[in-house]
Design a protein that fits this description.
The protein is an alpha+beta fold. It contains four helices and five strands. The protein has a single domain, classed as 3-Layer(aba) Sandwich (Cytidine Deaminase, domain 2). The radius of gyration is 14 Å and the shape is globular. The chain starts with a helix and ends in a 12-residue tail after the last helix. 30% of the residues are buried. The model has no long low-confidence stretch (mean pLDDT 97).
Length: 135
């Protein structure tokens, strides 16, 4: 995405962050996922008192898109309140992203809106994907 489309994706990730349910970590995260068809699905992290039952923003956005029939993605923006570092997806989220290809963009942001762009293949090098099951 470029120009206004990119700004919309980044803004939607910030808006999703505001919906985060994170009473334990107090670390809100939002994600906005752009499908190949141009639709945007957002997600936020949702924690649980049984910690391992929580869900990351990135996986929430992907699952929302999948549940609506979308499996081809172009980009995702991820937002947090981190000021000095760019937000990075956890390993589980990287593997879920990888399930849907290695050739799409992930916009990693800081609280001030600055960002860097990484491809899924950069975030999870030497990865295992669906095509490996056929070998």
């Amino acid at each position: 995405p470029q120009g206004e489309h990119l700004q919309l994706l980044l803004r939607r990730s910030q808006e999703a962050k505001n919906c985060a349910y994170c009473p334990y970590s107090r670390f809100p995260v939002g994600a906005a996922l752009l499908t190949a068809g141009g639709e945007i699905f957002s997600g936020c992290n949702v924690e649980n008192a049984c910690y391992n039952l929580g869900m990351c923003a990135e996986r929430t956005a992907i699952q929302k898109a999948i549940s609506e029939g979308h499996t081809s993605f172009r980009a995702m923006a991820i937002a947090s309140d981190m000021r000095d570092h760019f937000i990075m997806p956890c390993g589980a989220c990287r593997q879920v992203m990888r399930e849907f290809g290695t050739d799409w963009d992930i916009y990693l942001t800081k609280a001030d809106g600055t960002y860097i762009v990484k491809r899924v293949e950069e975030l999870l090098p030497l990865s295992f994907g669906p095509e490996d099951l056929k070998k």
